[in-house]
Amino acid sequence: MNLYKKTEYMLYNYKDLIAKEMNLTLDIRDLKLNYEGIRAAQYKEHTGNTNKFNSNVENEIISKEKKIEYLESVKEHIQIKIKKIESAIAALEDRQKKIIELRYFNKLSWNKISELINLTEVSCRVIRNKSIKKLQLLLFNDKVT
């Protein structure tokens, strides 16, 4: 996928990234609040000597801590993407920002965008192309091709 398309993909999925970050935050909070704890012990079972040094509670805590650590890592990765998109968009001119917002975040048609911006569709697309190329440079620190 070329960088132009990759930039568009990131913009189209910006709102989804924000939702994913929020859901990860809630999942992490839920895991931290809900430890199953000690289960009822059954003494009917015959146990033999074992070298096991941990209990079910310890295993549960370790498992949840690993899951929380993984989710926090995924969340941080998403937060970085969100911040990169936001900082790149902040560098655009107002008209460029508006066109990017309407096209990628609100998913409006070119016809509707041109009405709202009071420009022709062709002019809106030209501004979009320049904006995407600028965003591409900012997001990927790469030369525009």
From TrEMBL:
Residues 75-102 form a coiled coil. Residues 84-134 form the RNA polymerase sigma factor 70 region 4 type domain. It holds the Pfam family Sigma70_r4_2. Keywords: Coiled coil. This is Sigma factor-like helix-turn-helix DNA-binding protein.
